[in-house]
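A note on notation is needed here, since sequence and fold are reported together in a single record. The reader may check this reading against the record printed directly beneath this paragraph.
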Amino acid sequence: MAKEIRLNAFAMNCVAHQSPGLWTHPRDRSSDYHRLSYWIHLAKTLERGRFDGLFLADVLGVYDVFGGNADAALRNAAQVPVNDPMLLVSAMAAVTENLGFGVTCTLSYEPPYPFARRMSTLDHLTEGRIGWNIVTGYLDSAARGMGKDRQNAHDDRYEVADEYMKVVYKLWESSWQDDAVLRDRASGIFADPAKVHRVHHEGANYRLDAIHLSEPSPQRTPVLYQAGTSPRGREFAARHAECVFMSGPSAKVIAPRVATIRKLAAEAGRNPAEILMFSLMTVILGRTEEEAAAKHADFRNYISHEGALTLMSGWTGVDFSTYDLDQEVRHVLNDAGRTAMDNITRADPDRIWTVREVAEHVGIGGIGPVLVGTPEKVADEIEAWIEQTGVDGLNLAFAISPESFEDVADLLVPELTRRGRYKPSYRPGTLREKLFGAGRARLVEPHPAALHRYGRLAAAAE
């Protein structure tokens, strides 16, 4: 039996997100990102399409590598202005019952104690539908905004992240016992103090002596997403992630990354099948091939090449304003994100990219593939992509919003459902249960979060 194809919508609390320039298209509404009505409509659309979740990207800092300043980013709304993604979730949860929410938060600039409370709060308010995309950041501008000269070295950021995870696992899993909350009106006792425990942590980067401020939420630890596929990022994902987001222009780039993470997960003692892989993709749909092709051609007229290269400069740490458009892109190693540079240099040795080709490709949907056609044709190509790469699903970016997502919900989802490749209805339970099955609201061993559970720690101490 062919495995079910999973879908996340990929968006950001900003204009255009990964399709710079397309905010100027007359049917695009992404410039309304600062209005709650925009997000409420999007959430309802995604639930109608039975999307597994809305994956909300985020970035601290601005894309100021291109040209050495933020001018191009501001001209093109290249992920600036950008608002806080976490503040959108409660409103969208209120108008949906099943849609999950994966929120990107940069741990490098988030103290773990208040962050753990915010995630627990969202887990309560969504009734267990919150996930966290764990990132360490990649912009020096973010570090400067937080009072540092520059960000830490790439692999050093992951060393800090490993300790950060240990701290939040302790807060979420070990501070409150499952039966600590009594809500006993007769006795007037809300929580049993004997069953609420202080978390003590003394590490190289964090010190903590406190109880977790929130009572246990439905999932305790949110569903854990991770998006780094550098060698150190893959190691981190194999240890911590439940869902991994990866980007790349071809199956030849994606497939070995999937295989490597699954291999590392097995070596870490985890079941590789319990790490769900989502790859970036954009689909442009029409009821006929001619209609789809016309849409694609129309969208290409609105691409901002400067905006695309502004994003790529931020992702790679390379100033593409200094390159000739027909110049070949060569690999550069620095402390920015590693994956984006690998995608256009050494990940596929058979493909040589010029700067112009990068701008054209990134202009619609970022660095992932763009599929154009009828629902039947696109469904064929998605099934082939799943087979070739081994991914479990897609993070679908948009060309224009909300139209791109409406087309998926109304055209592609019925076709995938007809083929038996898409869920006919949502499963009950929390986001983790919807993804991994009934009775799986909480993480289980050997995941490191489960190893920090209060009862597990007490048993180990005996």
